[in-house]
Specification:
Layout: H1 5-11, H2 17-32, E1 38-40, E2 43-46, H3 52-57, E3 68-70, H4 77-84, H5 94-105, E4 131-132, H6 136-146, H7 155-164, E5 166-168, E6 182-186, H8 196-210, E7 215-218, H9 226-233, H10 236-239, E8 245-247, H11 257-260, E9 268-272, H12 274-284, E10 294-302, H13 304-314, E11 324-329, H14 331-339, H15 342-348, E12 352-355, E13 373-376, H16 379-387, E14 391-394, H17 397-406
Parallel strand pairs: 2-3, 2-4, 6-7, 6-9, 7-8, 10-11, 10-13, 11-12, 13-14
Antiparallel strand pairs: 1-5
Length: 411
Amino acid sequence: MNLTDEQKRMYDGEYGPGFQKAINMLIEYGEVWDAERLVNVHSAHTGLGGGDWLNEILEGVDQIRAFTTTHAGSVGSVQARRAMGVEEKYLQGGEEYEKQMLDLCVPKGFIPASTCTPYLVGNLPTAGRIFSWPGSSGIIISNSIFGARGNRDAMPASMVSAITGLTPDMLLLKKEQRYGEVLFKIEDLDMENLNEADYGAIGYYIGGVAETRNVVVEGIPQNVSFDKLKSFLTPQPVSGAVAVCHIVGVTPEAPTVEEALGHKQPEMIVKIGRKELREGWESLHTAEKNEVEVVSFGCPQLGISEMGKIARLLEGKKIASSVKFVVSTTDQVYILAKRMGYVEIIENAGGIIVTGICVMGFPYAQLETPATTGATNSAKAASYQARRGINIQYGSFEDCVNAAITGKWER
């Protein structure tokens, strides 16, 4: 690893033990992938877990060197889980731990956003800029919509990048490793009129086929909404391990199919039509009964337009008393939603709005009245919750809100 003079001083411990441990981790991480140097990180995002390790890695660190927001669950998760109806015994000690983490990290420069959507709260890496984030959804969105450059870093890697402002120059940071390998051609589908759950089902199918390979997709309208793109991209690293999906005409690096592929032939060409859409949907909808117990939105956390959609669907209506209806968003979006009247409409209908967490890990078994069936429009949440044995009802905003009102799943 070739280090600059400044990096050598960090390596030699001149800036304290925390910086020294952090850069050593980055060097070891990079050497696994034959990285020859460390490069500057323009955007970091990380969790505040790790217990004793977090205290050790921050020892002697006065100020972190990268602009850094914190991941969902970093702060406010206890309050959110209490609002969702989690039994108090599962929350004991949580608020004190959150306070300790904030007292440790905020003075050092961490921004306590507690979000899985940092791009919604001011941490937005632009084309060509380097980021180090955990959270597979944020990674694929930043690579594929914004054209920024980042790898599938875990929490420890993103933490040491936040501290040092550095990351190894490897993998998806290098142009030659970002080109598409599998080409998906969407045919015979009216993409203009498909809903967000349809986009999620297609994305889930694509991830399962692509596995770890870079993806190119042809056939998505250039004017597609950001919310649908978010639904489309988020499940690809769940059914597979996709970190970059070049959407032709949308991704900055993919003005044409040829440029997205690096002017090479793809390893595979896959056609996407009604059959593949149906296959993706069926792999996500696992429930065999129609009774609805929980409806959850917010994996990833919702933006203001999505909050508005739920409010419009619920206006003047009431959620069935047998249904727990939970919406997760960011603190910043919550403030906007409150100003626009969305919060009042959702809460008057019987809904619960939480911030600081993602509903991917919805605590079904820890509720005061445990549940085993959940409805959602998030393909990512559907997949992860099904793996925990939850019976999933998967569909659009309209499907899920209607189910919450009637207490029955109909599609």
